[in-house]
Amino acid sequence: MSKILVTGGAGFIGSNFIRYWLKNEPNDQITNLDKLTYAGNLDNLVDISNNSNYKFVQGDICDFDLVNSLVKKTDLIVNFAAESHVDRSIKNSSDFVKTNIEGTRVLLEAAKNNGGIRFHQISTDEVFGSLNLDDEKFNEKTPYDPRSPYSASKAAADHLVRAYFHTYNLPITVSNCSNNYGPYQFPEKLIPLFIINLIEGKKVPVYGNGQNIRDWIHVDDHNRGVKMIIEKGKIGETYCLGGNNEIKNIEITHKILDILSMGEDMIEFVEDRLGHDLRYAIDFSKAKKELAWEPEIGFSQGLENTIDWYRQNSVWWKKIQNNK
Ligand SMILES: NC(=O)c1ccc[n+]([C@@H]2O[C@H](COP(=O)([O-])OP(=O)(O)OC[C@H]3O[C@@H](n4cnc5c(N)ncnc54)[C@H](O)[C@@H]3O)[C@@H](O)[C@H]2O)c1
Fold it and tell me: Could you confirm whether the keyword Phosphoprotein appears in this record (predicted)?
């Protein structure tokens, strides 16, 4: 039986992770430390809120005393907590630097001070920068080259995590994952935003000419990979997790329009994001070879299921869609 501190567990990926973990390890005890920013939502976990092996603590990962008191009772920390939206980081990077960098440092310091607690850092493929169309995919050896305040803050956090391994022998692992989609994603991100706009009869805003390419992975495939890294990954190592699913933004838009039986007239091309990275793509052969992990949920099926979920859960998104 393990005692796990999950940070940012009221957000999109973290809440799906807690649900996934407790389903597979019902005897483990999870404490979810979350500040409940605009993106944190306890409704994401309403189905397990009465589980005696689950506990919620509202607080900031930058608060050392709080973090230290929780880490004392912990065998494993999984750090999802972050400011996660690139567009917000372009408008104001302050909270990104505080939470993503200082918050990670506080968690690492508490892990070190309490006897070297096992630590897993949830990172992103965005730390690697932007690929041209003919470049090789990102892998664990790709040098970091972050280009937005968001990805720069995540890159700095990852460097700190690795520094605590090299300097203090802290037992860490890192995963760099591509774009996630699935249920409970805050409706500022492309897939839920587009689905909800269309359900409400509004147009969808496609940046620039829609040619930017992302690799999309279902959140359950991501979380299965994280669990495998925690259980079987080599200490000190990094694992890239991807969906094997490179797709242009405009193609995703068409897929969503098709599933909802709507036409191109619902697309509105808007001014491009500043410094918009052209392409992300992940080579996950290390995770496949060492952990026997690969994504299992095909994009067409995953997208249909996700659209169904948003159709059936309008109460969930109507409550939060105007959160700032
Ligand atoms: N969404 C993606 O496609 C994606 C892809 C790869 C990696 N990631 C990484 O996965 C993690 C989770 O992403 P997400 O999409 O679930 O984000 P999210 O924005 O949905 O959730 C973030 C959660 O962190 C909490 N939080 C923010 N600041 C906090 C603080 N100071 N203290 C405690 N809690 C705080 C928020 O309240 C929220 O519940 C992030 O680290 C992100 O960088 C996301």
Answer: no
